[in-house]
């Protein structure tokens, strides 16, 4: 009989449990079978590892030596096994790649980039209003990649297992009813816009409302916001002439709405790509960022207000190197 890692795990389990009966239950063995195995281990090592007492077991001096060495060996072995398992998963072509996205124009470009990079994989997607649950899913390996977003001074923080790759920081624009008098202007002052009724997104942990409020405070006022809505519902409130709001610069004008830059560019939004550092997309991160960046530039041309803004600000909102 030769010493194996499982023998060291048994010895550690016995000390952790403090009795053979509890250790046998934790190891899903019978108590007689565990006692017999312990005797074989002790014979192989050449000495008693535990004193058997009526209250349980206590390590002998010889047992403490063995336990100290076992506890120094096992974490390294477990780490090696975990690392090799992850490396194997990365080398293998995945059958499915799960991606997520906040409300941003990059999800389609990310899906296409993954398909082009891993053509054999099925790509699925889920969307959330906040990046926070998506970061949790990435850290727990429930997602392989995601499109996220944040604001200057309120950047996302995440688990060390998740890589965040900023793509571009763009200005935040005003979203108006197309019939609104301000829609006739080339750009809109935030101090003028703040006089209107607003529709605002729900506060859900991504700090967008906090960021907006900080910008509003610079005007000396906070807007009246009788409507809390997101996505299509927010657009419908604006289209109906009931409210104004803010939007990403790449937002495509829906019928009945107008997208206009804010004077002085007081607000900004950062697009971020993220993936698990040990996931199947990690070796392809640079390529995926490049492909999604190219898609972003094509999206910019589809937004007339943003295309004009970029023409007047050629050094701003550039892709991150």
Automatic annotation (TrEMBL):
Spell out the Gene3D superfamilies in the cross-references.
Periplasmic binding protein-like II, Winged helix-like DNA-binding domain superfamily/Winged helix DNA-binding domain
Q: From the UniProt annotation, give the residues forming the signal peptide.
A: none
InterPro entries membership: LysR_HTH_N (IPR000847), LysR_subst-bd (IPR005119), WH-like_DNA-bd_sf (IPR036388), WH_DNA-bd_sf (IPR036390)
**Every HTH lysR-type domain range:** 3-60
PROSITE patterns from the UniProt entry: HTH_LYSR (PS50931)
Report the sequence similarity comment from the record. Belongs to the LysR transcriptional regulatory family.
* Record has Cell membrane as a keyword: no
Alphabetically sorted, this entry's keywords are:
DNA-binding, Transcription, Transcription regulation
Q: Could you tell me which Pfam families the record lists for this protein?
A: HTH_1, LysR_substrate
Question: Molecular function terms in GO for this entry?
Answer: DNA binding
UniProt protein name = DNA-binding transcriptional LysR family regulator
Instruction: Note the superkingdom of the native organism.
Output: Bacteria
């Amino acid at each position: 009989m030769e010493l194996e890692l499982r023998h060291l795990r048994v010895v550690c389990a016995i000390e952790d449990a403090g009795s053979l009966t509890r250790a046998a239950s934790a190891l899903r063995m019978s108590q007689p079978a565990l006692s017999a195995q312990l005797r074989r281990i002790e014979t192989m090592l050449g000495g008693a590892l535990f004193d058997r007492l009526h209250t349980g077991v206590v390590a002998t001096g010889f047992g403490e030596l063995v336990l100290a060495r076992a506890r120094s060996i096992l974490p390294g072995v477990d780490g090696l096994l975990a690392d090799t398992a992850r490396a194997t998963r990365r080398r293998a072509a995945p059958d499915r790649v799960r991606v997520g996205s906040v409300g941003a124009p990059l999800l389609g470009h990310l899906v296409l980039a993954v398909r082009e990079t891993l053509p054999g994989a099925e790509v699925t997607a889920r969307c959330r209003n906040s990046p926070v649950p998506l970061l949790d899913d990435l850290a727990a390996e429930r997602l392989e990649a995601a499109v996220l977003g944040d604001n200057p001074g309120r950047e996302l923080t995440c688990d060390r297992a998740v890589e965040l790759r900023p793509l571009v920081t763009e200005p935040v624009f005003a979203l108006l009813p197309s019939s609104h008098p301000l829609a006739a202007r080339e750009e809109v002052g935030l101090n003028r816009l703040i006089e209107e009724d607003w529709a605002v997104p729900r506060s859900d942990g991504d700090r967008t409302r906090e960021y907006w409020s900080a910008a509003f405070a610079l005007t000396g006022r906070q807007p009246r916001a009788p409507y809390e809505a997101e996505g299509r519902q927010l657009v419908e409130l604006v289209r109906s002439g009931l409210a104004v709001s803010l939007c990403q610069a790449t937002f495509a004008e829906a019928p009945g709405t107008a997208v206009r830059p804010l004077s002085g560019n007081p607000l900004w939004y950062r697009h971020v790509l993220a993936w698990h550092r040990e996931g199947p997309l990690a070796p392809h991160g640079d390529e995926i960022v490049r492909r999604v960046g190219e898609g972003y530039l094509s999206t910019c041309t589809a937004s007339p207000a943003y295309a004009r803004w970029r023409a007047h600000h050629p050094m701003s909102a550039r892709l991150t190197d």
